[in-house]
Amino acid sequence: MAVRNALTALGAGAVMLLALAGCTTAPASPGSSSSVPTGGEVSEVEVDATWLDDGRMIGIITYGSSTCIPVVEDAALQDNGTFAVILADPDEDTVCTADMVPRVALVEALPDMDPAVDLEITVAGDGYTGDTELDAVQGLDPSNTASEYAPSAGWIDTDDSFVIVTWGSSTCVPVVESTAVSGAAEVTVTFVDPPADQVCTMDMVPRALITSVSGLGDDSDGDSGITAVLVGDDFDNVRVPIYGSN
User: Fold this and answer.
1) What is the SS3 string spanning 39-75?
2) Per-residue b or e along 78-105, where b marks 16 or more CB atoms closer than 10 Å to that residue's CB
3) 20 CB neighbour count, 10 Å cutoff
4) Pairing between strand 161-168 and 152-155?
């Protein structure tokens, strides 16, 4: 499995155009000495999670300002099998909008995790904690080198919303123009074409965003079987299965 030292955290609202540019972070290695903050009041908050990148990454979903997105500070597998994730707030001088939207922070899955088995996740930050069960997804293979650096997607609990991860420059993050049903088991995600004179850094990082689509029926077997077709920007009808269920 390729080592991924930079993980992107991006947030989005429950509208068609859902992307923030230029937000990347390098979280602490899983199992470091970071600990959950103690003291003061602690609120219980709603969190969610989804498998991504063929089971190599997990998207941690929190809700809050679209411009003040938490980053993963530490993550470790506990003795009881729970995956504990610690989030850190952005820099104190970050200006936070007053909206309330789902945001995604990416964390590497650990080598002994199995995407085909349900996973309990706890999330803790400065003054809050939450937990969620990440449903198993069959057929993911973290050891599959052919899928490395390929786009991936996973459903979240927010109605008809899913996370998309693409790889590329941290300063040239794709922006969604529209997301629409284009077939019985297909949605087309159209990205804005960047300007011809756009200057991009030469790094290679995962860029995550959340988008939503209306008009899909609910699935009952735990596997939506729905494919996202990516078009626009650098994507030419790239077909990406959306993990999980909508």
Assistant:
1) CCCCEECCCEEEEEHHHCEEEEEEEECCCCCCEEEEE
2) eeeeebbbbbbbbeeeeeeeeeebbbbb
3) 21
4) antiparallel
As a whole number of angstroms, the distance between CA 180 and CA 228 comes to 10
For 25-56, the pLDDT digits (tens) are 333 334 443 445 555 789 999 999 999 999 99
What single DSSP character describes residue 219? P
φ/ψ of residue 225, rounded to 5: 65, 20
Q: 109 near 27, Cβ under 8 Å?
A: no
> Is 235:205 a contact under the CB 8 Å cutoff?
no
Q: Model pTM?
A: 0.84
The CA distance from 4 to 6, in Å, is 6
Nearest Cα to Cα of residue 7 among 75, 93, 96: 75
Distance CA 112, CA 74 (A): 17
